[in-house]
Amino acid sequence: MAEAERIIGTPDIPDAEGADGAEPQQPAEGAAPAGSDEPGSGRGRKRILVLLCVALLAYLLDLGSKMIVVAKLEHEEPIEIFGEWLKFDAIRNAGAAFGIGEAFTVIFTAIAAVVIIVIIRLARKLYSLPWAIALGLLLGGALGNLTDRIFRAPGVFKGAVVDFIAPAHFAVFNLADSAIVCGGILIVILSFKGLDPDGTVHKD
After folding, report:
1. Residues involved in catalysis
2. pLDDT for residue 40 is more than 80
3. Does residue 132 carry a pLDDT above 90?
């Protein structure tokens, strides 16, 4: 018997098979490898968390500053910060940022709402930290001014935004406007550098 086995030989057992002879499992076609950054992964959630934290900080700073201005500065003399170069002067602005287009309050309200929706949808594919910061600034600023449009006089979606930062020879603005402008500038820089919101870099 031993001589017969020597002549015939024994079949080779694949190393990948289990002890019970079952075939090894293969990853499903198109499945992401372990540790990959698919939507909803840890890395993506961290970027969304950064976006929300930046937006919340910008929103709370804007809201708090406006509450203080309305309570302490409205209907009062402007406060000089750096002489004639920079003052705090409370005004109500029915237009867009820096007092532009005061006759289109409802339109600017709708635009702000659309911007917020676009940012929320874009956040699902967000894997870039700089983009998370930029979109967070935009979201916080848009929410800050949209809050004024909804809840301040003269009415819902027609409310006037509280502005108070008054540089010399420039329009009066608020912290929400500043956040929007800073976020927009950062997005332009990232676009010129070829960095997309999903973290990929391309060169034209």
Report:
1. 163, 177
2. no
3. yes
